Amino acid sequence: MAEHIRVMLSEEEVNDRIKAIGEQISKDYAGKEVHLVCVLKGGTFFMCELAKRITVPVSLDFMAVSSYGSKTKSSGVVKIVKDLDEPLMGRDVIVVEDIVDSGRTLSYLLEMLKERGPASLRLCTLLDKPDRRVIDVDVDYTGFQIPDEFVVGYGLDYAQKYRNLPYIGVVEFED
Ligand code: IMP
Ligand code: MG
Prior knowledge:
- By secondary structure, the protein is of the alpha/beta class.
- It has a single domain (10-149), classed as Rossmann fold, CATH 3.40.50.
- It contains three helices and nine strands; from the N terminus they run E-H-E-H-E-E-E-H-E-E-E-E.
- It has helices at residues 11-28, 44-53, 104-114; strands at residues 2-9, 34-40, 58-69, 74-82, 92-100, 120-128, 141-145, 151-152, 168-174.
- It has a six-stranded mixed sheet with strand order 4-3-2-5-6-7, with helices on both faces. A three-stranded antiparallel sheet has the order 1-9-8.
- Helix 1 (11-28) packs across helix 2.
- The N and C termini lie close together (5 Å).
- Inosinic acid is lined by residues 42, 67, 74, 98-106, 150-151, 156.
């Protein structure tokens, strides 16, 4: 079965939006330093582009989590596969994610990070699928709200492929 990628958000649209979010964060955190926490692997492409657009001092850290549950449904119980290198105590933290879907993974993760005593904790996601939400999550910065379609590119994968696409696309199957 051949796969075809239909463009949903072009490279230019994504880049323009990331630039705007970077400007907004730079304004909101004026006079402060911001600590970006990236959730591997999906958040990496977005985080790098975003960090380049932020004009206040930026530090970065990474964590990897796996969600227990079936292939199609995350359970909301998150196991830390790789923890952060640095403490969050007293820092202004922004968690950077590729997409908020059901919200299960992120609501669990944010609760866990809150216990580490950051001065502030916000969430920034490139994509949001509000129709799929099962658990409420407060998103502070959103790139795009998208319909309930399975998307790839800009860090998002289908069976570990397509993360490197410089745009957001929908996988379509042809026979
Ligand atoms: P949830 O919010 O706990 O349901 O899990 C969200 C995670 O599911 C994201 O971080 C992605 O890794 C993955 N995911 C959700 N929707 C998509 C999609 O459309 N394409 C690729 N991965 C997705
Ligand atoms: Mg993710």
